[in-house]
Records
---
Amino acid sequence: MYVLFIIVVLHSCKQYVSKSISKFDNVPVDSNLIMSKKNSDALNKIEYPNKSLIQENSASSCHALLLLLVKSSSFDSEMKKLKFDIRIDEIVKGVATLELTIKNNERNEDVALSWLELDPNKKELRDVTIDPDKPIQLKYDSILFRKVVENCKLK
């Protein structure tokens, strides 16, 4: 039932997506860098509009890195096509719960699309949207993961 609700929400909200929800939506990610452990400076090879945002230790840097991490992960490819935003909802016992939202312009509100967990201790990124008790393990870029943990002060 919950899955059906999510599908209906996604389908109905898709037409109301703002063209500029986030300045990071058009961030291209080089697919050769995804899951690469060899290249220690892989993050520097990603081209994005304002590179200084990623290099600073700030809230905007954390936000940009979280978006890059999810968009370059094995997260649902159909969901990644949407112009979603991301925020840290809570941190419990060192595990950050991330909320992915989309703007509903008709009602001027954010609608939750998905929930992820980022666990720096286990080095895991999990999709807990459908069943929090049986999360889906996501593959991710280990360099971006480390940068998120450092810049978002998750450890």
---
Amino acid sequence: MTHWTDALLDEMAVQGDPPADEAVAAHFGTRTPRQAAEGGPRADDRALLTDIATHGGPAPQRTSPALEEFMAAGLPLPVWATGPGAAERVARGQDVFAMYGLQIGSALYCASLPEGYAAPEIARTLVATAQLTGNARRRIAETSQFVLDTMEHGGLDPGRPGWTAVRRVRLMHAAVRHHTAPVRPGRVAVNQEELLGTLLSFTWPPFRALEKYGLPLGDDDREAYLFTWSVIGAHLGIRTDILPLHHEDLPPLDALFRARHHGPSEDGVVLTDALIGVMQGYVPRPLRFLRSLPPDTIRYLVGDDVADMVGVQPSGWARHLYEPMRDAAGAVRLGRLGRWMARRVAMVIGRHIMTSFVAGELRGDQARFEVPEHLAHAWRLRNANERPPVDQRGAARVDSSMRLAPLRSVPRAARQRARAAATG
């Protein structure tokens, strides 16, 4: 377990990602990050970010040997990520994602992203980047695709989608550092501390959400999932001497990060409003009463303090679903029924957004969005590589087989753990 201190995070706040930064610097010539920040983004800066965001890499007319070499290189990983048993632990972590992916997806949209937006420095960088790379729907879909690509079985193997995705993200971060001034003097934009905070947000909030859904992970599954994300973090250029993370790292690291960064900001509110708008925008008109699910689920998962920071207000009937479960007595009183209801809501949100992103790509609203075959099978989705049909008005129709599967789609082992937690 790493000893997490302000001094360590201060050190990380001035560090970027040298291999990616060197590739981008070589691409742009001798223009340093400080010169770029003072001069503002140039047209080719914007073009590079747009290419990476929408096409997975630089366009042929704008690439360079430095960028091509970085995208193709097998960057070294630490021994803990490649040694005996590492591949098996990664595979087990990916199995956990396949088992609980819909609930984890709900936690990504309703907990991980809002908690990240509660950090004003991160929110400001995200807003600045979003202005260069597209609308909120596209950015959220890209984040979801990144998770799917890296958590697919074998996704981190050379040449596979996850392997390519982490290099693309590293280049994007380096390009942002090259022309974006840090929020605070003496810091680096998209620095090592912020990258660690992102890794934390993809693990700790989902763990807490699964517990609230009545699906607590066992110790081995939790450590395997954390190990998998630690390997992803190493691929993303996070300092490997502070990895892999273990479960006992998360509470003190989360508390330290909140104390250092959390607070209200206009950027955080803007990002959260856009996120809620994306989730609500996919609700069909006949089901408009479900529009209160996203904001009320966010408030339930992240708590009132963070929800207030990012401007989430209780919006409707869904708050009555969650309110009785917000304290221990209420959770005990509702027991299995309450956890079943929360788990069901999570599946509705996760599945609906996944299928809506597939339909969104068909309409041209966003870049590629594909659910890998084995994940589509585990989540009872129709073949994710077969696009839903389009009617004459150009509106995508989601096939009926992509609707929410019955509760038995939660694997038996998960239901057994949920029953044990409910009776315990």
---
Amino acid sequence: MITYSFKLGKIHGRELKEGLREVSQRPLMRAAKLIQRAIQGSMRKAPQPGVPSRPGTPPHVQTGTLRADISILRRKQADGGYTVYIGFTKKAWYGIVHERGGRFHPARPFIAPAWKKEARRIKHQFRNLPLAQTAAIRRLNSRSFRRQTP
């Protein structure tokens, strides 16, 4: 799960929050897609059908269901922000067993290593956000810098 939060001061906080929400939606989805591709790319086809991967390495692709089921879900929050979830659905429920291990199955993590591998590229997605081009900041600038006529 990607969590993106921020705190702002009281001066023009509402406009800044709106601007940040507006400008961060695209980089947030780009970051989620980077992680999704990294997760899917970490799973390799088994050398022979039915051969499991070594414990501690990403699971081998047997049928392709788990790899195809890695999905992105974007939910709008009550405050107008977004939360993005990356994972698998009920169709590939066994992904959690691969990620964390089970009673008779050693862990074969593939989500956490992909997150760590892509961390630098994810941070790069949020650099140089064009905050000044958002509607909220344009409204703020038009109000704050109005020329006072005598």
